[in-house]
Amino acid sequence: MKVLFVNGTVIGKKTGVMLEIIRNYIEKTNCGYSLEIMNLKDYEHQIVDGRPLIEYNTDMQEIVQKFKEADGYVIASPIFQGSIPGVLKNVLDMLDPSTMRYKPVTIVATGGTYQHHLVMEYQLKPILDYFRCMVTPNYVYTQAGDFDHDNRISSNDVHDRFRELARVFVQYAEMSKVLREVPNTKK
């Protein structure tokens, strides 16, 4: 199983720190999955405007291909102005609705205040529901006080939530294997 860790921003370090920690916790489950981190800052982005995929640059095509090849996703997003970054929404707009169908997804986010945790619930989860993903029920939201001055997670509670998030994600990934099998309807 291939899991794509999506760092859904082009600036900052906190989302990348969270993805590394979660990757380590998933590895500790001994699931044997292939784990890849994709940093959106490493790509040249174009605004999605409805053109066929072939008309976008190779970076945009590569992003779509990575999503297609993945069997599950961990999406990390900062919360800016009460919303996910435009670059993350733009990437999601590139995807065919069937790309993420019945694949497990877990969400982590960080923001300046505790009130922004609802962005995950009321903005990102509905998008993922549109894709018919298997969104884990236990996303993790962090805020600035959970990080030290070197952008390391200093909260044991956050680490505990990341461990549980990894455990639940692996269970959802195992369940998804059966759901993505296409039943043979021919007799």
TrEMBL record:
InterPro entries: EF_Hand_1_Ca_BS (IPR018247), Flavoprotein-like_sf (IPR029039), FMN_Rdtase-like_dom (IPR005025), NAD(P)H-dep_FMN_reductase (IPR051814). It comes from the Bacteria. Residues 1-141 form the NADPH-dependent FMN reductase-like domain. PROSITE patterns: EF_HAND_1. Pfam families: FMN_red (PF03358). GO terms for molecular function: oxidoreductase activity. Keywords: Flavoprotein, FMN, Oxidoreductase. Signal peptide: none annotated. SUPFAM superfamilies: Flavoproteins. The keyword Flavoprotein applies. It is an enzyme of class 1 (oxidoreductase). Its EC number is 1.-.-.-. PANTHER family: FMN REDUCTASE (NADPH) (PTHR43408). This is NADPH-dependent FMN reductase. It comes from Sporosarcina siberiensis.
